[in-house]
Amino acid sequence: MHELSIVMSIVDIAQQQAERANAQSIDEIEIDIGCLSTVQMEAFDFAWDQAVRETILDGAAKKINRIKGKAKCLDCEASFAIENLYDACPECGQHLIDIVEGKELRVRSLVVS
What topology does CATH give the domain 3-112? Predict the structure, then answer.
């Protein structure tokens, strides 16, 4: 379950940023997670509930933005939505694609006090 290590990394990032801002607590955290990332959301939510206890994120509101997959074909240069990493280009049928969006995993913002 790599979701636990992801959550622990998010806690570390939040702690570092709170210290930089001389904040005592974090009221809200906003996270981008791409639909094509390997994050299983049920496991992430379970890991979140366990890992943030007694940390600076304990009690913080959590907002998750799910980023849909988008790709560009390297053969015909068509841009299109994808749901799976192995989807083919709908225009030419080729599988040589560049994933433009959907693999994100980042802390977008923190609201501190």
Answer: hypothetical protein PF0899 fold (3.30.2320)
